[in-house]
Structure formats: C-alpha cells, structure tokens
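Supplementary Text 2. Reproducibility record for the structural model of the 226-residue chain.

All settings were left at their defaults, and a single model was retained for analysis rather than an ensemble. We include the record here because the model underlies the residue-level annotations in Supplementary Table 4.
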Amino acid sequence: MPDPIPTILHSDSNLLVIDKPAGVLSIPDGYDHTVPYLGRLLEPAYGRLWVVHRLDKETSGVMVFARTPEAHKALSTQFSTHQVSKIYHAIIEGQPEWDDTLLDLPLRANVGRRNRTTVDIGEGKQARTLFRVLERYTGFALLEASPYTGRTHQIRAHLFDLGFSILSDPLYGAGLISPFIGRLALHARTLSFWHPFSGEMLTFEAPYPDDFNLGVSQLRFIASTT
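Retained model, structure tokens:
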C-alpha cells in the first residue's frame, strides 16, 4: 500500500504548509527508522525541512514546516510564546452539558505504564484549552478545540478530565475502534501565524478528509432518523 501523500497548502522560500494525512508520523519513529514520516516524504521535492510543531500519527490536518534555520527560529518563538492560533475539530463520545468551556489545568506527560498525559496540579505544566460544541448527535458531538498551549496530547487529556474521549482513541478512550471512523477522530482544522519575514498574518484551513467527513455525515443521518 503506498504511503499517504500530504497535500501542499502553501510553499515559499521560508515555509511549507501541508494538510497532513492520518496515519503518517510527523517525525522519525524512535525505534524503527524505516517507518515513513513527513520529512522523508517531502524533503526529496522541497529540500531540508525543520520541524516546528507536531501532530499525532493518527491526527490529520494543517502543519507548517520551516525551510530555513531563520524561519525555524522565528516560527518556534511564535509557538513557544503562544502567538499561534490552532483550531481542531474532534468527534467525541457523549453529550457535554455545556456549549463551551475553558479548561485551565496543568498537564504532565508520560505518566504511568501507558505514558498518558494527565492533569497534575503540583507538577504539571500550564495548559489551557477552549472547547465549543459545534453539532450534537445521538450519543456523540462534534467539538471545536482551541489549545492556547501546546502540551503533549493536550486536547485528549483535557477531554478525558472532563469525562469525554475522542472517537476511536485507543489511549484515552475505551479502546474500541468505531465503525464511523477507524482512527482517532481529531483534525487540525486551521492554523494562523505571522509570516516570519513579511509580517503578514497567515491562516490556513484543511478540509475534512474523507473518513472524518463520512463519520460526520453518518452521525448526522442517524441523529435525523432518531
């Protein structure tokens, strides 16, 4: 089966913005260096790329790479000082009682045997996520998640603390793969940041991939018939 191919959303001498497909690593695998990752797929056509941020393997959506060390430094500063706006869409199991909620709870990564991220008031790092319900279905909901910080598994861990899990999440959910969508139902919808040299504010949006779109369509249909 061929490797999934990222869609190019923008390219200039400093930046490469892509729509990452689910199922491909953002960085090399720490144990198996033969596993495909984005750099290996993109660098033959675009030259050396510098990683600025990451998406989990099963997460789809917008990512930006730097194409020069200077751009990498400038973009990394924007991410570390929370100047970047990130919006994710997720299908979750359950029905929140709220329409929107802001969770401001510190997170600690790599906890326990399963290396999950958990809320830890004493030793965690600051983490803030705004959640908003976009659509409600029968037993499920489509959420918008806006993380102000960029902690490992931040959206998934904060949802877990709220008593919810993303559909088909094997780490924070029940471990079951849904027939609606067979991978973590999380999509990086938009990414906004300042161009490191022109100073222009850039916003990029990735459409739902086929599996996510099908999952939403199926849940809408079920909700309309019950």
